[in-house]
Specification:
The protein is an all-alpha fold. The protein is built from 6 helices and no strands.
Length: 99
């Protein structure tokens, strides 16, 4: 894990294979930890963030804010803060930085 011989995603899935083989936990008990509601919320936010990036929606939003509020610093700051607050309703901060 520390040397990254295996990618982090592969390392995260090792307990699913190793715990049942070593008799630490059953496969059912291990897998239920990967299916928590918070994990699906995180993955959903990540999908939305990737879709926004793929379709250049982030650029469209930024240009729309510029066209709406102008280039005066205080209004520009207000516009960017409003766009960020609006997007934060659907995308968690963690999901946006994971990409």
């Amino acid at each position: 894990w520390t040397t990254e011989v295996l990618p982090l995603a592969v390392t995260a899935l090792l307990p699913i294979i190793l715990f049942p083989m070593l008799g630490i936990q059953s496969s059912k008990d291990v897998c239920i930890n990967y299916l928590k509601d918070n994990n699906f919320l995180f993955v959903g936010g990540l999908f939305v963030a990737v879709a926004i990036e793929k379709w250049n929606l982030h650029k469209r939003i930024a240009l729309r804010v510029l066209l709406t509020v102008g280039s005066e610093p205080r209004w520009l700051m207000m516009g960017m803060m409003s766009a960020t607050a609006f997007l934060s309703m659907w995308i968690s901060n963690t999901a946006t930085t994971a990409r």
